[in-house]
Amino acid sequence: MVMHRFANPARFLRFAAVALPWFSAAAVLCMAAGLAFGLFVSPADYQQGETVRIMYVHVPSAWMAMFAYTVVAGGSISALVWKHPLGEIVARAAAPIGTGFTLVCLVTGALWGKPMWGAWWVWDARLTSVLVLFFLYLGYMALLGAFDDPVRGGRAASILAIVGLVNVPIIKWSVDWWNTLHQPASVARMDGPAIHSSMLVPLLLMAAGFACYFAAVLLLRVRAEVAARRIRTLRLAAMEAES
Amino acid sequence: MNAFRAILVRDLRLALRQGGDAAAVVLFFVLAASLFPFGVGPEPNLLARVAAGVIWVTALLAVMLGLDRLFLADHEDGSLEGMVASPAPMLVIVLAKCLAQWLLSGLPLVLATPILAIFLQLPAEGLPALLGALLLGTPTLVLVGAIGAALVLGARRGGVLLALLVLPLTVPVLIFGVAAADAAIAGLPARPHLLVLGAMLLAALAAAPFAAAAALRQAVE
Amino acid sequence: MSAFAASRFTGAGLGCVRGERIVFQGLSFEVAGGTALTLIGPNGAGKSSLLRLMAGLLAPAAGKLLWNGAPVADDPDAHRARLRWLGHGDGIKPGLSALENAAFWAALAGAPGEAALGALQRMGLGPLAETPARFLSQGQRRRLALTRLLLGGAALWLLDEPTVGLDAGSVAVVEALLADHCRAGGMVVLATHVPIAVPAGQVLELTPAAVPPPSHSPSPSP
Amino acid sequence: MIDRLAAFLAMGGHGGFVWGAYATAAIVLLAILAASLLRVQREERALQRLAEAGGRRGGRARGPAGPAA
Fold this sequence. Notes:
The structure holds 4 protein chains of 4 kinds.
Chain B (H helix, E strand, L loop, with lengths): L1 H17 L1 H21 L3 H24 L4 H5 L2 H7 L4 H30 L7 H25 L6 H9 L4 H15 L5 H29 L2
Chain C lengths: L7 E11 L2 E12 L3 E5 L6 H9 L6 E6 L2 E2 L4 H6 L1 E4 L11 H11 L5 H9 L15 H13 L5 E5 L7 H16 L3 E5 L9 E5 L17
Parallel strand pairs in C: 3-8, 3-9, 6-7, 7-8
Antiparallel strand pairs in C: 1-2, 1-4, 4-5
Helix pairs in contact in C: 3-4, 3-5, 4-5
Chain D lengths: L1 H9 L4 H42 L13
């Protein structure tokens, strides 16, 4: 068991240096193509008209919000269960990006709801689940920073992320059931019309673009976190050398 | 398991001698729920429609309030590390403390509910289902809350952080708790909802202590 | 005082990390039945960390703890059954009487309820059994905390600065207690700043700078 | 040409919502990207400075703090 196991994960830094440009380029390309298809090529919806184009941002951000949370929980599991030093760093780096996607999803959901139902916020099953996910993200990040010792905060937040992951399906199921209980069938559900093939292309392109963006920014934040940890280790060593 | 009994008896004896904490949780519950008529107006059938929901949300908040002291007192005076280092298994410690907490803050809420049902004009046929739902739901809230209480040990703003962490996890219990009462009021069977609440309680009994034990273990490190 | 089977408690190549600080590494020790190990050293040298590691409160980052040659990690429950931990906090509830406090720790240690009164008398607190703990003096509270050691017949005592804030009389009581325990074949490991007379035993000095600053040669990464 | 552009921007009367949605996504994602880039530069520059400072005082500190990997 190497003592300095988290001192310098050199192998990861080498991988990040190689992968970052590829992810960044892929993100830009996919999003550009997605926007081109979404805004210009694909037709307006016969029912919703142009507002359906909001879907090309709203739906991918919902997917990414969910995916990012699994990355946070996955990192937490590998940190707590397999004691992998990078696990907690990846989880800590992914959380803010996931929160950003959740925020985008909620705001674009409201912007889509207003023209469709005349209300900024609709307690639609999926939107409500994303709202609860947003609170889970805030809880994770609040716990992360609630301790003086960053390692202590990391470990506590990792446990919360795992508990959260176990609860997400239960919450989703309960909210869906609750939604059918209270929602008269007449109101169109959030997913709107069946997705026409010409709409699928921009949707998937934007989703791919968001995913590459997530990977690129994740690598950046992990590099920053590794550097920050090395700084703390160096400062501690220098302090001990003086004493 | 005399360790389980010892922890349970000690916590109950301590709380009943000091008396304050248990009463505070119930008083908050009754007071907070009684504020709603001032907010939404005393009009009976409006209150009747929201009564079950108001009682459930205030019960939820009351349980959260009582929870941040769950491990804190023992953490501060060294008892917690003594217990963790003792032969008593961690799960026994967590379950004993959760049972004591439920007896002190969960059960009194259920006993105080009829008064609020009258205050908030809850239709009479809804009361039995509401009481059943609270009896099944409050222990789940205590078990899930115990994870939060263990996680925030040693954190700066423990109390409010505990609520932020745990409330999102209590949404399913809230949904089915209120649904049970609403179903009974509407003359529909409340049994399926109570069964779901029972299932959630069993799941919490099985899983929550492990998470709380893991959180405690790294809190006493 | 039940005699304890002769046994050895050893630590090999132990490493401890708190937060991101390497507290100590490559540390070994051995305690035989009937002897005591005194840990000394300035604050932050890792005395408490080593004790917590021995008690299983803290997982070692490297190395192994052995009891009679068998790794402790294989059976943590058995290890906790044969040790008593006493940290800085007394773990005493002011709202409970001295006897109720002692009975609580007896139950946790798996000892019969009556053992609590016997332990109180042994520590000279017999007449104070029924008084609520909040009326006890600092020395009496410490002695009440020490009764925990007598319950359940544990071979290994782990004490973190047991005599802090005690008058001479109480220190003598502690020293007598440790002497009896060792004479009966038990083991004591204690961390202390002030000298404590301990029967046969060794001293382990922990120095904070025992750790070279983390080397920057790219160690085999994960 | 201008009226086709105007029609496009109007988005069938829902321009505010559609462009609002895309603007939100752009703002949030760019903000996170910018914050991450700033953080990386700040941390890695500080690490570089600390490593060099460590190297210069190598004499007194036991074991020279070599260049950061």
